[in-house]
Amino acid sequence: MRGKVCILFIVGLLISWKGWCQYTSTNSKFTVNEVKGCTGLNIQVTHNVLPACGSGGIFCVIDYGDGRPGQPFVNGDIANYPTAGNFKLKIIYSTTTVDNDSIPVSITANEPPAFEPYSCNGNQVSVKVTESNYAYYIFNYNDATAEVTKPANSATDIHTYATSSVRNVSVRGYNGPGTADNCVSNTLPVTVAAVLPAAKISQVEVLNTTDVKVDFASDPSIQYRLMIGTNNATSFQQYKTIYSPAAATLTETIPNIRPDDNFYCFRVDTYNPCGNNVAASSPIVCSTNFDVAAQNNQNNLTWNTATASGAHPLASFTVVKNSAALTPTLAASLRAYSDTDVVCGTSYTYRLESNYPGNVKSLSLPKTVTAFSTDIPAAIQNISAAVNPAGNSVQLSWVQDPAFNAAEYTILKSENGSYTPRSTTTQTNFTDDQYSTGSGSCYKIQYTDACNNKSLQSLEACPLALTGNVQGDNAINISWTPYTGWTGGVKNYFIEKYNANGELLQTIDAGSNTSYADNGQDLVNQVYRYIIYAYANDGTITQSVSNTLEMIKRPNIFYPTGFTPNNDGLNDTFTVFGQFVTKFEMGIFNRWGEMMYTTEDIDGAGWDGTYKGALMPEGTYVFKATITDLTGKTFERSGAIFLIHKK
Question: Organism's domain of life (predicted)?
Fold first, then answer.
């Protein structure tokens, strides 16, 4: 490039290279108005050779030097450069190469500058460019004031607006004299304020043993300083400068500290960059150094944090247990709390919430402990026993004291007067399928709680054992063993009486008696089944049940020892009467064994003392009867009868 001709305008004390320049090609064949600028630069080319390109039959081609194909050129055409780089612009003549010429062109990437506009007191703003991609930066405040140009090494400016409002600030890059001012601007809003407001911390949370998170609400275009005090709320150090161009809830996580050994207090200062001072400060919010330790039957919570003050407006504490807040809240002066509502062997997770005005909270690190107890668990108080109908199995059930968390129950069974472990279970019931009603076995229950403490043995629980017998007159006597196993004892016994088809015939309140005589007249039901129910004085306890006892009455028959067949209407025939008979066969024999009479009808007319139409002599005769009862059993009965002739 042989040279340039420029007219430079200087206004006041502010630098301005805006003017008019012409740059001459290497061999002075053409001139251009620009040789440097940002992408998108338009360069006007003027030819210095006559006849000029596009006139007098002269045909020219422009070569951009950036890889694009050459284009026909007419004097005064515009060459546009869309990409960044260093190129050689050429003009090629059609008639002679002597007039060919070129000029170097430098194109810079056209990027909007990165900058931050800060609000200040007194309607001032401070603008800071945060990059150095350009040699100079031009500030435009969009309020009809003159633009300001600053070099990259000091690209900061302060400007005062007339009134408070939201304004737009534009900044564009410029590479100084000899370059086109065609770089794109970046425009950002800034809040112009008479007085900068204080920030507000919304939450502090201890995330783990090394990290604490601080959330606070920010106003747009304000520069903040996050301050930290270790184990105090009076002496602070600056941790970080924070800026957000828009209103937002900002989150800052402070790593590599020790919140499980110390407490940390946080304050957010609103910084005034125009005056290089703190314009306002947020209320202080502190973390808590929180610990939990399990003790016998209680979990002890302790913590440490800064004392409440005007600058540190701590109001109260809330203990959160397994994600549920405990009530009431605790005074801000407290530093310890004991939780006695715990169950041995159960894990609990605690967190302490520090409460500040405006629903601001500081959350401690959660701590988990497992409660323990060295207390001897209370013995099982009430055991119920239900024997199955056959009397070869018994189900035991009991109530666990809710104050103790049982891990495993041991069922003890008496064998020949001594107790030995029968089995273990984690449930509050157990079925012993090796039980026998006639064995006289009793049970005790012992358990180990979640802290491996062993309870005392329970009361002895002896299942109801029901027995009975049938008297000769078919009266039934039943009796049962007294039920033991309930602390409050038995209130009463009930007897349920069923027939052979399982139909309930009668319910009898036996009171505190352990026997019952059933001598009622019943010619229909031969088979009875009895069950005893024991009810506790404590109405919340499940009843105990005996085995089912089946009693079968005998199919007795009744007959006279003599009869007088004289047709006087009195005792003229020999007849047998019976109970529960379904089938009947009877024969009557004389002393020589000859059958005098036979019948299958117990309800028939009976023997009238004759054989083949003749009245038999007085004397002793024998009857033999075969009887089948309601249960299908067959019995043999026989006896002597005396035939009397009576006139």
Answer: Bacteria
